[in-house]
């Protein structure tokens, strides 16, 4: 430990001696701040910055609505009253046409695409809190439309889901960016992983289980009404929530930034050093590019960062998460499992996912982002292939329950790896200057991929269409394998890297596989 401390002090001293005329200016404050953050353990950071962590969890409440809404889409298909009121009856069985299934399930994703992109404007103009407030108002209106939609008025229900989806895209994007900007380095991965916690999905399955046996309109209206909980609570707490200190400094409100940092870290926080770190990081990034537009996200080294922020969500969808999670209850029913058992499995599935995500709070700092993400991709590939092979003998009672078991194993693996780590990476790889726009593009990509999968899946699974059932595991297994290979070469390690260190690693064109081990030599004026 003494040797480590001596090394860090020597690094600071050598950096302090850099020529003022160096390309990146005087990096002394950056080095001091980096050494301080690297030396702090997650437990120490939690003791000092517990307020920051709690506020991150609060803002992530909006992201829970994304999970709730996405799970509702597949869960409502298992409610006979919903299929009857918005579908048709054939042979005594209520059926919702595959076209409307695709439309309802993809409407939120379409809205999310535009909501994610709009965050760059609202967040930069109104701040992170202001953007969340706008999303809350839009969400309340979208849910209102869904709740009062009359029977067989499918277009009105579709409009409500589209409007609410716009708010969902803003919620997810703002939650990731806010957590990355408010949390200190040791808590950054833990807080951003909370965006994917999955409590919304678990709540959704629990509500559907409680109302699914009703025969009136409230069998599905009650699940819609529960969505009001999230934006109402957020609006009530936003006046007390701290604004992002990074946004405040960019707006020239340094005194307000100091007050926020003092509030988040208490007396133990070195507020002066933190503000100076933010200022010098902003100056460092301004030396790379003077503008901050969406087009800048696709220029120079920012393109590489944007691709990673997009691809983590592409790979999530390639790994078949909507197939396994979004259609879990309906899939269990198609496999021949009784309705009551299917509901119980659906609730248990999301509960297992929450436990898996909680495990990530420890593993994300212990093993790093790259290792966990790559391991998760490989494991999901194997599980999807196993589901496909078992489906060959799907008439067997043992095979049905084996598929159910692999489904539960899959969601545990996904929620300990690809799911939460994707949200960590897309918030961390972006520069501070372009963060609101990069995370918006990432959310847009997530929504786009979700929309495509939601459109295609009903035609692959439904009995009146391709009726592939578990064979869909082969399709996503193949896509997941390709994604595993891509991730090995291009997913970087962002663990223990400050914002300015990541800036320098990307500027130096360091390969993604070397991010975790690359030494930023003090004798190079462009490195820490």
Automatic annotation (TrEMBL):
Superkingdom, taxonomy of origin: Eukaryota
Catalytic activity: myo-inositol(out) + H(+)(out) = myo-inositol(in) + H(+)(in)
Subcellular location: Membrane
A GO cellular component annotation in the UniProt record: membrane
Bilayer topology: Multi-pass membrane protein
Keyword field: Membrane, Transmembrane, Transmembrane helix, Transport
Entries under PROSITE patterns matching the protein: MFS (PS50850), SUGAR_TRANSPORT_1 (PS00216), SUGAR_TRANSPORT_2 (PS00217)
Pfam families the UniProt entry points to: Sugar_tr
Domain Major facilitator superfamily (MFS) profile per the UniProt entry, residue ranges: 55-495
Chief location of this protein within or outside the cell: membrane
UniProt GO MF annotations: carbohydrate:proton symporter activity
InterPro entries, A to Z: MFS_dom (IPR020846), MFS_sugar_transport-like (IPR005828), MFS_Sugar_Transporters (IPR050360), MFS_trans_sf (IPR036259), Sugar/inositol_transpt (IPR003663), Sugar_transporter_CS (IPR005829)
Spans traversing the lipid bilayer: 50-68, 103-123, 130-148, 228-249, 307-330, 342-364, 371-392, 404-426, 438-462, 468-491
Record SUPFAM superfamilies: MFS general substrate transporter
Record-stated family: Belongs to the major facilitator superfamily. Sugar transporter (TC 2.A.1.1) family.
Protein name: Major facilitator superfamily (MFS) profile domain-containing protein
